[in-house]
Design brief:
This protein starts with 6 loop residues before the first helix and ends with a helix. The protein has two domains: 17-61; 71-195, no CATH class. It has helices spanning 7-12, 18-31, 35-61, 71-78, 179-195, and strands at 85-90, 95-100, 103-106, 116-121, 127-129, 134-135, 138-146, 155-159, 162-166, 174-176. It is of the alpha+beta class and 199 residues long. It has a five-stranded antiparallel β-sheet with strand order 3-2-1-7-6.
Length: 199
């Protein structure tokens, strides 16, 4: 006949039940990640980061909308007219085209040019509005040349009563208060070039 032990004596005995030990290990394993699960989590996080990062890079690389202030810098950074070429816009600057190597292609990025008036300094250093004529029976509102040495067309642009000065060879486009201030900047640039101060 087998001896009958009370529950109290079983709990106090020094020899632990092997079945209880196994249950304890199982609960520990169930509360923690396995190596395979950890690797899957790391893979998912890495793929998510890669997708988001590549999308952000594409967004950053996309050229900014063309405005009078960003006209030259956007065309230079995008590399559209690398080696020299011309951007010309039609129908109150609603559509623009790139002319390079005797080929004309439509500029497909965003435009924020609106109805522009272009001025250049004429006789007596007074601003004179420029008319660019027509292209295939459409009025041309802007012609902007970018040369292989980095210089470009020099002009004063008026857009909705605001004025901008675009230098030919160095410096950034500047927003100015009036057409007279733009003409002063033009003359300053010409003096710097003539005096050789920019070297």
């Amino acid at each position: 006949m087998l001896p009958i032990f009370s529950l109290a004596s079983a709990k106090n005995s020094n020899t632990a039940d092997p079945l209880m030990k196994t249950k304890g290990l199982l609960t520990k394993w169930q509360n923690a990640f396995s190596l395979l699960e950890l690797m899957i989590v790391i893979l998912i996080v890495s793929l998510s980061y890669l997708l988001v990062f590549s999308y952000m890079q594409k967004v950053e690389q996309k050229p900014k909308a063309l405005t009078p202030l960003t006209l030259k810098s956007t065309l230079v950074q995008s590399g559209y007219l690398k080696g020299g070429g011309e951007l010309f816009c039609l129908d109150k600057c609603q559509k623009c085209y790139l002319f390079q190597n005797n080929k004309t292609t439509e500029y497909e990025e965003k435009l924020d040019l609106g109805d522009l008036k272009i001025y250049m300094l004429g006789q007596g250093d007074n601003p004179v509005q420029v008319e660019f004529g027509r292209y295939r029976d459409h009025p041309v509102c802007l012609r902007f040349k970018l040369h292989s040495n980095g210089s470009s067309s020099e002009m004063i642009i008026e857009q909705n009563g605001k004025f901008f000065y675009l230098p030919a060879s160095f410096g950034d486009a500047a927003a100015v208060k009036s057409i007279e201030e733009a003409a002063e900047l033009w003359l300053k640039q010409a003096k710097i070039i003539n005096d050789g101060e920019y070297y």
